[in-house]
Amino acid sequence: MGNKERAKERREKRHQEISFLRTIPYSDHQRWWSSDTIAVVTGANRGIGFEIAHQFALHGLTVILTSRETKVGEEAANVLQQGGLNVVFHQLDVVDPSSIELFADWVNQTFGGIDILVNNAGVNFNAGSDNSVEFAEKVIGTNYFGTKNMIKTMTPLMRPSASGARIVNVSSRLGRLNGRRNRIGNLSLRQQLEDDDSLSEELIEQTVTTFLEQVKDGSWTSSGWPQVFTDYSLSKLAVNTYTRLMSRVLSDRPEGQKIYINCYCPGWVKTAMTGWAGHTSPEEGADTAVWLALLPDQFVSGKFFAERREINY
Ligand code: NDP
């Protein structure tokens, strides 16, 4: 059996295990949430985000399904409302500061805060073996800065609770620092990003800014950036390192006001982003986000997951 077949077999076995795990209901003791628990999902009008919203609602939470386009967002929310689920819609474009501001004000006035934030909104403009950086600014702007701006704006609105509030960032294995086939070639930069003592918001910012400058002057091809879907991989690498950084920053919060933050890779999922290629359904791709956000009593923060297991950054 070749490596590909073995990987396929492992993947299918894990998908079966997870399908089984999903049939086991949470006990009353594990269920820290209720219909008053508010979960926000960005980019939830379709794909993985829609499924995350759907699964939260099936667990009985109140879901704020957001989308940058009002019409499609309302339609998506309507599908879930028709099924009797507790879902409300609000417009949210994660690259538009005024949209984020309006959203935060509305959340504050309507619910007084939130308990769960899933940063799912994302873009990618490459497919197959393409590696264009034509839309690099948009990719980094949405995937990294959009996620970061949402965290900065929504963190003060996260409600105190004994179970802690939760942030889940939808990322990708392509953003691994030490991927075997796809990583930053500059060893010194990689080590600085890896080392908790040197990791900072400025370092992440400087890394993506340097890349974007090199995209403009054409020197990016020879500068050791990730080889596959370079702009996208770097945007998710930034999301991953920011998750690690924020987990440290947030760990200072007193008991009762904790916020746990983690990221995960949904796998290669059949959505618009992949042209419906991939070997994972949106439902399976959403599973780890929901599992992580609802973890009963195991307080995990700053980690990277796939298929309900921790993986290396
Ligand atoms: P889709 O393209 O189906 O969904 C992406 C969603 O993000 C859409 O709802 C889109 O809205 C929204 N979005 C894009 N830009 C913005 C913005 N500025 N503000 C708000 N929403 C925005 O892709 P997926 O469901 O596959 O992707 C979801 C997440 O999963 C992304 O972060 C992606 O990077 C990640 N991911 C996906 C993988 C896959 O194999 N599919 C693998 C690894 C990670 P609109 O409909 O308006 O475009």
Quickly describe the structure.
Its EC number is 1.1.1.-. The chain is an alpha/beta fold and 313 residues long. It contains nine helices and eight strands.
Detailed description of the structure:
The protein has 313 residues and is of the alpha/beta class. It is 44% helix and 12% strand. It contains 9 helices and 8 strands. The chain has helices spanning 3-23, 47-58, 70-82, 97-111, 136-154, 187-194, 201-217, 230-250, 282-294; strands at 38-41, 62-67, 87-91, 116-119, 165-170, 259-265, 304-306, 309-311. Strands 3-2-1-4-5-6-7-8 form an 8-stranded mixed beta sheet, with helices on both faces. The longest helix is centred in the first third of the chain and has 21 residues, at 3-23. The model has no long low-confidence stretch (mean pLDDT 96). The protein binds NADPH dihydro-nicotinamide-adenine-dinucleotide phosphate. NADPH dihydro-nicotinamide-adenine-dinucleotide phosphate binds next to helix 2 and helix 5.
Helix-strand blueprint:
Blueprint: H1 3-23, E1 38-41, H2 47-58, E2 62-67, H3 70-82, E3 87-91, H4 97-111, E4 116-119, H5 136-154, E5 165-170, H6 187-194, H7 201-217, H8 230-250, E6 259-265, H9 282-294, E7 304-306, E8 309-311
Parallel strand pairs: 1-2, 1-4, 2-3, 4-5, 5-6, 6-7
Antiparallel strand pairs: 7-8
Helix pairs in contact: 2-9, 4-5, 5-8, 7-8
This protein binds NADPH dihydro-nicotinamide-adenine-dinucleotide phosphate.
NADPH dihydro-nicotinamide-adenine-dinucleotide phosphate (NDP) binds at residues 42-43, 45-49, 67-69, 92-95, 120-124, 142, 146, 170, 172, 265-266, 268-269, 271-274, 278.
